[in-house]
Every structure is written in structure tokens, then in C-alpha cells.
Design a protein that fits this description.
Number of strands: 14
Strand content: 25-35%
Structural class: alpha+beta
Order of helices and strands: HHEEEEEHEEEEEEEHEEHHH
Distance between the termini: 38 Å
Radius of gyration: 20 Å
Length: 323
């Protein structure tokens, strides 16, 4: 009931109506969401982008994107004339984060996208797809192709976090609605590497020091992995009114993968800056992880594929408070 109330208020804000007054964290979240919607349009206008009547931006003015599902597409039935609609939460490196993919299955193009995504393969959308910034995509009249590669939450550059930045308060527009990964809620997802220390988990850094992970809940699938792990990659989320994190999924990892995670994180920050990753930064990460107790070999295999397109880069920088 509380979530439904919040969603109704967010819907009113999206339609240009003012929100009711709430105290504390919920009130701050709603006020930032309201002001953020207007400020986002200013960011987009600097790129010469205009919204359609449905508030989306046509992919004809953008670059092709790929979306890779982290949940299986789920079909629900809406009232006539909308019919069936399929939705999934997906990674888009080109858009810089997680996005809701919505497919109205009465249309052949949406059906084509759905058929690709339900096989757990990424889909490539080009031409006239619809992006409602920062986190909703519909196929529209796009050209639909299966991706040539699969990206999971463990691989995605845009989801990676380290101790250096995990404490940053997320912007209200960085949260996504999710009903399936844990309890229904409005969630901000990150991927981290963490090491077990005295029955707690310490988030590994890139240049700073490890930080304690405040855990609200560990889901059963993740708990099974963590029971046998000393070092793990974790998919986590928090909600606007909580500082604690829910651990959704976990994979046992090793020192070299943790090193690669930190380098990938650093390279994504450089992608946002428009600058190059250099050897000095990599050496700094190695030293920091060594101080944290990791025994590192000579080589790591980070993900250095830069895919953000310019408008999405601007939006991501703004959401993260970068100038």
C-alpha cells in the first residue's frame, strides 16, 4: 500500500502536478524527483534533443543501443485496447545504467524484441526506438536484432561501484521500480566486490579504504553463495528511505577478478570524464587493493569497452553530480 501511494505521487509529478508534502527521507526523495524532471530536460536541450508527445526521445536522433535483461520478461494483460504488455529490467551500457524495457505485444516489433529477450539474449535496437530518460525504453518502430554478446550484472561497467563512491546518495531519478528481485520497491542497484571480515562484508576500494557494507537482507540465492565465499561479487540494491543494502545475488570470485572490477570502475569514470585511463591509476588501484589484503598477480582482464553515447553520458554525469 505504501509503495502504491508513492507510485501514484510519482505519476502525478510526471504529469506536471505537485506532490503532497511528506517529511524526512520520503519527502526529500519526492522533491528531488520533481525538480530533477525539469533539470533533466535542460541537460537534454543542450544536446538539441526534444521529447515526443509521449515524453520519449526517438532513437532516430540517438545511437543504437543494446539491452540485456537481468530478469526474465514478464507478461501482464492490460485493459482493452492495450492488450498484453511485457516488461523486463535490463542493462544498457549505451544508456549508462539499468532501464525498464516495455513491450506492447500487439505490435510486431515489440513482439520481435520480446522473443529475443525471453531467450535471455540481449537485443539491439536502432532507428526509431523510444527512450524516456533516464530509465525507460520501448521498441517503438525500431530495427530489432539479437545481440552478438551477453552481458550480465557481473559484466556491466555502468553498474560497478567500489568503496570510494558507494556512499554517494543516489539521485531520485537513478531508482528503478522492481517487483521481482526481493520485495517490490523503488531500487538503486550496484555491483560490488566484497571480502568477508569477522562475519561481515567489506566493500573493496579502488583508491580509498574498504568500507563496511550495511546489510538489510540477503536473499536466499545469494546466501547460498556467500556461505562458501571469502571474496565475492555482489548485486545489491537500496531504497530511497534506507541506508542499508539488500544482497540480491552473489558469485564467488578471486583477487584478479576483484582487480579487474576496480579497473573497469575507474575506466567508466574516465569515460564519463572523456579522458583516458593511464598506468598510474592502475598502479594506484593495485597498491590500494594490496593494502586491503589482496594478493594480486600481474594481469587482470577489465572490461574496457566504452559504449556510452553523448546524450546518455551527459545525463549520467548530471545524475552523479559531475560537472
Amino acid at each position: 500500500d505504501d509503495l502504491a501511494t508513492i507510485l501514484r505521487i510519482l505519476g502525478k509529478i510526471d504529469r506536471g502536478l505537485s506532490e503532497p508534502s511528506f517529511p524526512d527521507r520520503i519527502g526529500r526523495f519526492l522533491r528531488q524527483y520533481r525538480t530533477g524532471r525539469a533539470q533533466l530536460d535542460e541537460v537534454l536541450s543542450k544536446r538539441g534533443l526534444e521529447r515526443r508527445a509521449d515524453a520519449a526521445i526517438s532513437g532516430q536522433t540517438l545511437h543504437p543501443i543494446e539491452v540485456h535483461p537481468i530478469t526474465e520478461p514478464q507478461v501482464s494483460v492490460l485493459e482493452f485496447p492495450l492488450g498484453e504488455v511485457a516488461e523486463t529490467l535490463a542493462i544498457s551500457e549505451e544508456l549508462g545504467g539499468l532501464t525498464h524495457v516495455t513491450m506492447w505485444l500487439k505490435g510486431p516489433i515489440a513482439n520481435a524484441a520480446y522473443n529475443v529477450l525471453k531467450e535471455s539474449v540481449g537485443v539491439r535496437l536502432s532507428d526509431d526506438y523510444r527512450w524516456n530518460p533516464p530509465a525507460r525504453v520501448t521498441p517503438g518502430e525500431a530495427r530489432v536484432e539479437a545481440s552478438k554478446m551477453k552481458i550480465t550484472w557481473r559484466d556491466a561497467r555502468c553498474l560497478k561501484a567500489v568503496a570510494d563512491d558507494l556512499a554517494r546518495p543516489p539521485h531520485a531519478l537513478e531508482y528503478v521500480l522492481d517487483y521481482r528481485l526481493g520485495e517490490p520497491g523503488i531500487k538503486y542497484f550496484r555491483c560490488i566486490c566484497a571480502v568477508k571480515s569477522d562475519n561481515a562484508w567489506q566493500v573493496l576500494p579502488s583508491f580509498a579504504e574498504p568500507t563496511h557494507l550495511e546489510v538489510a537482507e540477503i536473499l536466499p540465492q545469494a546466501r547460498r553463495e556467500l556461505n562458501r565465499a571469502q571474496l565475492a561479487a555482489l548485486l545489491i540494491y537500496r531504497e530511497p528511505w534506507s541506508t542499508a543494502w539488500t544482497v540480491v545475488d552473489a558469485v564467488v570470485t578471486d583477487e584478479q577478478n576483484a582487480f579487474a572490477h576496480a579497473i573497469t570502475w575507474a575506466d567508466f569514470q574516465k569515460e564519463l570524464d572523456g579522458t583516458a585511463l593511464d598506468g598510474k591509476l592502475v598502479s594506484g588501484i593495485r597498491q590500494s587493493l594490496g593494502v586491503s589484503g589482496l594478493r594480486l598477480g600481474e594481469f587482470a582482464q577489465p572490461n574496457l569497452r566504452r559504449n556510452l553515447f553523448p546524450a546518455a553520458r551527459d545525463v549520467t554525469r548530471w545524475l552523479r553530480g559531475l560537472r
